[in-house]
Design goal:
This protein is of the alpha+beta class. It is built from six helices and nine strands. The protein folds into two domains: about 1-35; about 45-200, Glutaredoxin.
């Protein structure tokens, strides 16, 4: 009988602790979500296609549409950059003052092959205001990780070349330098334009 009471007491205490822990986690998630939510994005200091240093601080007060990719990418990268370019053109027609505050940014995840000269040639295929940036491999990987992404270099079958596995998201950063949202491959130019118009109307960013 005493053994059963001890066991029941132990079960009750365990349940109480579990409920207490669950309640504490729920409180943290609801009341102070910033304490458990990972920060997305962050400052950077990279080099543009002219060989000049560019820092994220230079873009405070503007919206950034950031895409991580590489010039040797066979299909996804040019498609995404074209979507960004067309979105900016649409925005220029609908809200030119807002469009002037939006900067499209391409950060290469393949600095070994994407030299400044290569980036200059590549950016000419897209919007005239596209900023192409590069850094060391370590700098780029760290920045992608800050955006909760990854970079993986994958050798091709013949071993003579390689592809780069990377996020296909377009990240929207607000005028205060903080991450606002991202667009998946299922969200194209229309989603980017509508989101920017809505944020501007709400005074967010």
């Amino acid at each position: 009988m005493l053994r059963h009471r001890v066991r029941d007491f132990g079960l009750a205490l365990t349940a109480l602790l579990c409920f207490g822990f669950t309640g504490w986690v729920a409180y943290i998630l609801i009341a102070v979500p910033e304490s458990v939510q990972a920060e997305i994005g962050g400052p950077f200091a990279l080099e543009d296609s002219a060989g000049q240093e560019v820092t994220s601080a230079a873009y405070l007060g503007r919206y950034l549409l950031i895409y991580f990719g590489y010039t040797y990418c066979p299909d996804v990268c040019p498609t995404r950059l074209q979507e960004v370019s067309l979105a900016l053109e649409d925005l220029e027609a609908r809200a030119p003052a807002l469009a002037a505050k939006v900067v499209p940014v391409f950060v290469t995840v393949d600095p070994k092959r994407d030299t400044a000269a290569v980036l200059r040639a590549y950016r000419s295929h897209f919007h005239s205001r596209l900023v192409a940036l590069r850094g060391s491999e370590a700098e780029v990987i760290d920045l992608v990780r800050a955006y909760q992404g990854y970079v993986r270099y994958v050798p091709t079958d013949n071993g003579a070349d390689y592809l780069v596995d990377h996020p296909a998201y377009v990240y929207l950063v607000g005028p205060d330098g903080r991450y606002l949202t991202h667009f998946t491959t299922f969200q194209g130019r229309d989603d980017m334009v509508e989101r920017l118009l809505r944020l501007a109307a709400e005074g967010q960013g």
